[in-house]
Structures are given as C-alpha cells and as structure tokens.
Amino acid sequence: MSSAAAVTIEGVSKSYEVRTGEDVLALDRVDLDIKPGSFVAIVGPSGCGKSTLLSLLAGLTPVSSGRLGIDGDIVVRPHPKAGVVFQSDLLLYWRSILDNILLPIEIKGLDRKAYADRARDLLAQVGLKGFADKFPSELSGGMRQRVAICRALIQEPGLLLMDEPFGALDALTREQMIMDLQTMWIRLRNTVLFITHGIDEAVFLADRVIVMSPRPGRVDLDLAIDIPRPRRWSGIHEDPAFQHYVRQVREMFEAKGVLVAH
Questions:
Q1: Cross-referenced CDD domains, in alphabetical order (predicted)?
Q2: Which end of the chain has less neighbouring CB within 10 Å, N or C?
Q3: CA angle 34, 40, 43 (to 5 degrees)
C-alpha cells in the first residue's frame, strides 16, 4: 500500500474568465495543511469553490496564485499518489466492471495481470464479488459508484480525492456507502479529502471539517472532530458530541446567511 500523503495548500486563489470577459474569483487565498492519514471533509454552499479546490489538487486545473503540494511535490499535473472519485461514476459502458477498474493501470502502461487479483479483491471488499464480468448497465447507481471507488483505489493511492461521491444516490444507498467508506478508510488509513454539501455526512466521516464561505471560497471554520471510531450512523444523531459539532457548522452557515435560523 502507498504511504498516506501529506497535502499543503498555500495562499491558493483561483479565478475564471466568464463569457462577458470579466474574472470571477472562485477561491481566495486558501491555506490548509493536511496530515498524512487524516480524513478531511470540506463542506460549504454551492459555488463556494469546494470542487474547484479538489480539481486543483487533482492537477486537472491550474491555480491562479499560490501553490499546492502533495508530499512536497508541487502539483502541476495529476500526481501518481492521488486517486479521484467524482459524483458521477464515469464508467465506460462498453467495458466490463473488471476492465473499468483496471483502466488506470492500462493508461500508465502497468502490467494488467499483476493487478487483476487486486481488482477482484477490491470488488469483494465493497460487496461486489462475482461482478467482475458484468457491465455498468447491469448495476445499480450505488453499485456503479462502488466500482468507481475501486478504480480509484486500484493503485492504493496515498491521497483519495472525493467530490460529492454520494450526492446522486438515494438515502438508503448513501447511508450504506458512508458506512462502507468509513470501514475502508479505517483499514487503509490513507489521506482522504472529501467534498460534500452534507453537514451530518462531513461530521460523521471526518477527523476534521473545513467550512467554506460563500464565493469567493475562504476557510471560515477549521473544526477538529473528536468522536471515537468506528462510528455507527444508526445512533450517531443522538450522540451529544456529534450534535455539538453539527451545531457549530450550522451556526457558521447561519452567520454567513447560507442557512436561515427559525
């Protein structure tokens, strides 16, 4: 397994030119240090730059100013230690499940056969044993997203970047995926950066919750979560510590006018 990666974000800003020719500032001087092996959730309103920050870290978009580092390497292109899971599973419909998982291996010119057993093991770990020869159209949305996670994990990345990976799932499937992700992370102990709109989801999964301001995105709150693991979704909402952390995040959103208190 790759060792967990350290992440540094130093004074990062990102602006985009819109159709009118004006620049729109998406992120404004964001600073974060993420320790190896930590699970960090970033939560904020739509348009606050959460996904932009992940795209920058993934090396898919260049920064406007500042710099990003993964294990001391400045990010200018996709980093070999990083795996990415998007909200859409992005599976190739004409490839089998096994072939979809092995796609990053093929792209990097690595030995497919050497990773095939690993791919099947990952499928078994996410409850999809026996599905290697199926095609995406034969799987439900939740099952396809499990495959997307396997594809990101096939190279055992030291950094897993997840952009609202459960946002399109129904409530029950989402709950199971949250529990499955926690179990997987406890076993792997890699570094995870998890983007979400869900306050409960962020507090449940993370060691640390970063709350972003409305655009331009800045860090409004950096909250350490001290709740023992493994955590159980079925009872977590009655836990006083959980309630306290959720309230802190909600109060920040209320102060910024993102949520209206009644």
A1: ABC_NrtD_SsuB_transporters
A2: C
A3: 125
